[in-house]
Please model this.
Amino acid sequence: MRRFLASLQPWRQGYDWLGILYVVLSGFLPLLNPACFAALSERGPLHALGPHLALHAVVAAAIYVVPPVLRRSTAPGARLLGVIYLPLLFPWLYGELAFLGVVFRDFGQSFDPLLIDLEQRVFGLQPSLAWSRAWPWRWLLEVMEFAYFTYYFFAIIGLVLIWRTGGRGRDRNWALSAALIRDLGAVMLSCYAWYAVFPVWGPKYFEYLGVAGSVESEGLRGWLFSDVMRWIHANGALCGAAFPSSHVAGSMVSWWWGWKVAPRHRWWFTTLWAMLTLSIVYCRYHYVVDLVGGVAWAAFVMWLTARYMAAPADGLRRDTGSPAGR
Model:
């Protein structure tokens, strides 16, 4: 076993350790407040201290072993899975914030009043309310909801731009893909960790906070994408995951790598990303400060990874004498 694990070392990437670190810490976090599981409206068999710890131990061990095994495979599909596996864990890790988010503060105790007051002082109003009320156009709501929805495809777009532009060799594209996933993983996992200690609900919950209703409650309705986003938020949104905006921070990573590798595609990708960032305010999902925080946090984390984490290259290179490395 020791020899097998040692053989995987050249294929292990820095963001594997980020994933392991987050999974281990989030596994132990409920030890600080075992009653946090009671915050769930529907508790499953894993929503108890023992099973929770066991699950996280298994996942951490799997991250240590499985991705390096997949990366050294000659099958492109397996290798791709070994590179992009971490974002595939995001829905599970995000979902756990439903109880990790109440380890330190009771449900409903958010920092929204602080941000509401800040925006009132800076703008003299609440931008998330004023904008949609000033432009109550159904077509604009639909466009903005579409832009917000595209967030779920930004990483895919970034990877496609890496592989379909520039005329680079396969080894370089594998390394660039891993660099994008490294930055995306660092940004998103750090956002999740922050949400657990600094919960902000956002304008989406203004009605609960006693400020205002949703855009729909004021008579502004869109069509397809408005319904899609309403369904997503009804079935997957969490209270307390608004600042900084992971929509902005996560999409900025893909935009940045797309900007670097595909100059001819900058115009439309930048336009789409700008629309996404604006949509979070118009649709009343986030405060302006969430937007600014998302940009600043993504830029800071990407600076840290570029400075202190080795570029994902060596562990993705093959023997240049073999057909697979050419």
Summary: DSSP finds 16 helices and no strands in the chain. The longest helix spans residues 170-197.
